[in-house]
Write a structure and sequence with these properties.
This protein is of the alpha/beta class and 541 residues long. It has a twelve-stranded mixed sheet with strand order 1-9-8-10-12-11-6-7-5-3-4-2, with helices on both faces. α8 packs antiparallel against α16. The protein is globular. The N and C termini lie far apart (47 Å). Subunit of the heterotrimeric GatCAB amidotransferase (AdT) complex, composed of A, B and C subunits.
Length: 541
């Protein structure tokens, strides 16, 4: 049965939902009887801070740092395939120019991101660099401008090393939907990195770049972060400008950040966040200094999260979630308790309705947004005898199967006679989801859940079963429907691959509470013991 019809059955069966229940969280993991956590150095360190200190001290040059990352990229890229385009020559020139400015004593040469190599998801426009959205229809397109988020990174001194791979126009959960190549997971090259920001996540995981930008419409930053063992942040809707981001679903799209540590992710957010006159949906709310809110390990109290109220979403630990993932999340919850927080289970009865509502709304918006790629306004044009044939042949030749399917789904949901049954009903469910989260976040400071119901699965395992692939987004889509911020931090492993497969903990907060999420995530990663989230790909080389 097509997804809209399946979604319709879920939506029409909805009745008034009871008030979310809550109960004391009871750990069943190995940490249940563990002693209080010892605050010892954790595995995550800040690459951005290390680069900045080495440049200021003269210990290393920007050219040396760039050469190191480019060398690693060239060694690993044949197996990982994170990048669609690598701007190595431009990166080397920018590094040399930075060294010249530092040597000449220019005070503003060392910006907050000076010498930091950044990967940019290829649905964010970059001046004089290919920006394809992972689609053949935009093959060869080079924008004349940078997306606002990209421009702010450059203004802070970042060096754009290239454009990362993605599912076409962000429509997918594995990065197998790219028109150009299939990206692999650095933890096991037979597995997917997640999607649609799989290239951005795998590039950071393989240390091909320091940090990266992605986009998150229904989990496209957070699920790959979980699969690849990196930190991923989906900001509040409107926190970061969408100007220059190729639109998929405009009411859901958010530019997100990925890094190997919470500190690096916070640094990137501090740079790219803020109002933009080019985006009417961007918020004018002041941007705090997210980095200053992160407390160093040696200054933490023995119970640094004392009094923090945490709700673990009951519906995310049930049927359909791998037992290894559930165990890792319960271990993480126990760790948070040992740090002083109070963890209780909370029920969000509308949680399961978010997935069908999301796919109706996202596909409906996509059917409108992607109408511009017709061979006339945007996209490669196929020669034909009349205008309708140009439209039809250009789109048939340039767009992939998944994109076409979602356009058809969205057009169907918006068509006369079906609008009320699908689109209007999905919007009503969206309101229920928002209210459900609002009620829970009035009682709890943060909510936690898995970032995905499983760890990374095999390439090709779900490509012919779209419903199974869509079901993998159940943990993340509700956050986008509610417009909330969410942070994913690595929290453990499950069996698989040569060294296990990483699992991510999703931390959800109220609108514009990114600072609190980053603070909690930073404390969590710094105090987490006996884990190293460096893929075996790097240890082998």
């Amino acid at each position: 049965m097509p997804p809209p019809l399946q979604a319709h059955r879920l939506l029409i069966s909805h009745r008034r939902l009871p008030t979310p229940a809550r109960r004391r969280f009871t750990a069943v993991s190995s940490l249940q009887s563990a002693p209080a956590t010892t605050l010892a150095p954790g595995p995550a360190t800040s690459s951005i801070l290390s680069i900045r200190e080495s440049l200021l001290s003269g210990e290393r040059t920007a050219a040396d740092i760039t050469s190191e990352y480019l060398s690693r990229l060239r060694r690993t890229e044949p197996s990982v395939r994170s990048f669609i385009h690598v701007a190595d020559a431009a990166a080397e020139r920018e590094a040399e120019e930075l060294d010249r400015r530092i040597a000449s004593g220019e005070k503003d040469a060392v910006g907050p991101l000076a010498g930091v190599l950044v990967g940019i998801k290829d649905n964010l426009c970059t001046a004089n660099m290919p920006s394809t959205g992972g689609s053949r229809i935009l093959d060869g397109y080079r924008p004349a401008y940078d997306a606002t988020a990209v421009r702010r990174l450059r203004d802070a001194g970042a060096i754009v090393v290239g454009k990362t791979n993605l599912d076409e126009f962000g429509m997918g959960s594995t990065t197998e939907g790219s028109a150009f190549q299939v990206t692999t997971n650095p933890w096991d090259d037979s597995r997917v990195p997640g999607g649609s920001s799989g290239g951005s996540a795998s590039a950071v995981s393989a240390r091909q770049c320091v940090v990266s930008l992605g986009s998150d419409t229904g989990g496209s930053v957070r699920q790959p972060a979980s699969f690849c063992g990196v930190v991923g942040l989906k900001p509040t809707y409107g926190r970061v400008s969408r100007f220059g981001l190729m639109a998929y679903a405009s009411s859901l799209d958010v530019v997100g950040c990925l890094g190997s540590s919470v500190f690096d992710t916070a640094t990137i957010l501090s740079v790219v966040a803020g109002h933009d006159k080019m985006d009417s949906t961007s918020s004018s709310q002041d941007v705090p200094d997210y980095v200053s809110e992160l407390v160093s390990l040696d200054l933490l109290e023995s119970k640094p999260l004392n009094g923090l109220r945490i709700g673990i979403i009951q519906e995310t630990l049930g049927e359909g979630v791998d037992t290894g993932v559930i165990s890792s999340i319960k271990d993480a919850a126990s760790h948070l308790e040992h740090l002083g927080s109070v963890v209780e289970e909370v029920s969000l009865p509308s949680f399961s309705l978010g997935l069908p509502a999301y796919y109706i709304l996202a596909s409906s918006e996509a059917s409108s947004n992607l109408s511009r790629y017709d061979g006339i306004r945007y996209g490669r044009q196929v020669s034909a005898d009349d205008l309708n044939e140009i439209y039809g042949e250009s789109r048939a030749d340039g767009l992939g199967h998944e994109v076409k399917m979602r356009i058809l789904m969205g057009t169907y949901a918006l068509s006369a006679g079906y609008y009320d049954a699908y689109y209007k009903r999905a919007q009503q469910v969206r309101t229920l989801v928002k209210e459900s989260f609002k009620g829970a976040l009035e009682r709890y400071d943060i909510l936690i859940s898995p970032a995905a119901p499983s760890a990374a699965y095999k390439i090709g395992e779900k490509i012919n079963d779209p419903l199974a692939m869509y079901a993998g987004d159940i943990m993340t889509v509700n956050v986008n429907l509610a417009g909330l911020p969410a942070l994913v931090v690595p929290c453990g492993f499950v069996e698989g691959g040569a060294a296990g497969l990483p699992v991510g903990l999703q931390i959800i907060g109220s609108p514009f509470s990114e600072g609190n999420l980053l603070r909690v995530g930073h404390i969590f990663e710094q105090t987490l013991q006996n884990f190293s989230f460096v893929p075996p790909l790097l240890a082998e080389r």
